[in-house]
Amino acid sequence: MTALAPQPISPLDGRYRDAVAPLGEFLSEAGLNRARVEVEVEWLIALTDRGLFGCAPLTDAEKQSLRRLYGDFGQAEIDWLAAKEAVTRHDVKAVEYLVRDRLAALGLERIAELTHFACTSEDINSTSYALTVQRAVIGVWLPKLREVIAALRTLAAQHADAAMLARTHGQPATPTTMGKELAVFAWRLERVAAQIEGGEFLAKFSGATGTWSAHLAAEPGVDWPGLSRTFVEGLGIGFNPLTTQIESHDWQVELYDRARHAGGILHNLATDAWTYISLGYFVQIPVAGATGSSTMPHKINPIRFENAEANLEIAGGLFATLSSTLVTSRLQRDLTDSTTQRNIGVAFGHSLLALENLLKGLDSISLSRDVLLADLDANWEVLAEAIQTVVRAEIAAGRSRISDPYALLKDLTRGHRVGAEDLASFVQGLDISDAAKQRLLALTPATYTGVAEQLARQ
Question: Which of 393, 407, 418 is nearest to 172 (CA)?
């Protein structure tokens, strides 16, 4: 058998590449290295701006040329770093050498020794991860989540008055509306999205063991903690002042737990949508040319929701691993976080793919109101709750002498179907006021939805 040319192992880099490509700008190896170059360059500018160690501040033109090192970061830099890392066996050191090399080309050798000054690799890495994860989550992943929320809000409003049989424990239960049930998912997701949006993205910039020892040895007269905070916060992220060699990653644990939480809600949405399709509540809109089954021509499979379900499970597993691994580090540093963080993009990739499939799935379903109404009309026994509750109110008000309304209704309805005429006859024979009887006789399963419509329109 002829060997294949090198192929991607992950489907994210294969068949799903286009769907997750926006994340690659930030959460790929190249995206991380571009951010590392950005941090190194901005640290150089921060040091020279303050005239430290006799270095004059750079001119605006020199700063602009330096910033092009990460602004124009591309394939040439990717290849250069790959070749250098093959020698250094250290990714951050390779980035330092790249910056030094470009400084020489720019005629800025005079500041070369300030490259990576007093930094440990984690100073660069924690800052770079905070930047790349922030940009990927806030700029790519969260907007896609909000698209799903918006789609749910739209469907909730469209179907706010679409009465349907609820199914608690899978059994016929007090009716609701399809709009209200979709609004529940939107509300749950909005809450988690707000938590993610308000989360922190933290970096440390305090040297080998978080003490600024080398900084003070080189220049004891500088407020290095204050300078570091100003530098990190100037990049648009938060500063962690108290760390070991590594930034403690607690902000990442919080983020991945919230992303996993959102994924759990989305998984619930996917399985509920799948179930509503199987019940005939939703009809899938055919796509021209698409095949549902390779042997059964009539089928339209709910593949968007199934794909989302599977990808959310994969993403959830990875987010859980990220959280449980990154929360701890042996003594002042071990490298388990380094390997783990390389999979941040994989976790968000599967999650983003799920969001894309959910959006397409929600856009390709149509509500069958006639099926909902037929289902309601076949289950008049769900009004037993209303009847026994009204009777209890009548007893409390002294207008009825019925002793056990719950047992009375249980005997009438439990374990068998009751039709409209059966219930009407039963209500007419109850020892309750005429006003209460009229309210109950006016009820149908389709109108027994409380304030569901109002809730769906909130």
Answer: 418
Exposure pattern of 128-160 as b/e (b: 16+ CB <10 Å)?
bbbbbbbbbbeebbbebbeebbebbbebbeebb
3-state SS, residue 367? strand
Q: What is the DSSP letter of 418?
A: -
Residue 450 is classified by DSSP as T
**Catalytic annotation, pick one of 169, 294, 366, 403:** 169
Which amino acid, 310?
A
* 361 close to 302: Cβ distance less than 8 angstroms: yes
Can you say how many angstroms the Cα of residue 107 is from the centroid of all Cα atoms in its chain? 45
> What are the C-alpha distances in Å from 20 to residues 79, 166, 218, 322?
23, 36, 45, 20
| Cα 81-82-83 angle, rounded to 5 deg | 90
Average pLDDT estimate for 387-392: 92
Mean pLDDT, the chain, whole residue set: 94
Distance CA 155, CA 142 (A): 20
Question: What DSSP string describes 89-139?
Answer: S-HHHHHHHHHHHHHHHTT-GGGGGGTTTT--HHHHHHHHHHHHHHHHIII
Give residue-wise pLDDT tens across range 92-106.
Answer: 999 999 999 999 999
Q: pLDDT of 24-37, one tens digit each?
A: 999 999 999 999 99
Query: What per-residue confidence (pLDDT) applies to 4?
Result: 79
Assessment of whether the complete model's pTM goes beyond 0.85? yes
Q: Rounded CA gap, 246 and 203, in Å?
A: 9
Closest CA relative to residue 215, chosen from 225, 229, 230: 225
Contact 114/55 with Cβ under 8 angstroms?
A: yes
Catalytic status, residue 329? no
C-alpha distances in angstroms, 259 versus 72, 153, 214, 279?
A: 31, 20, 38, 30
Which residue out of 10, 90, 278, 293 is catalytically annotated? 293
368 carries an active-site annotation: no
Contact between 163 and 177 under an 8 Å Cβ cutoff? The reply is yes
- For residues 197 and 255, is the Cβ–Cβ distance under 8 A? no
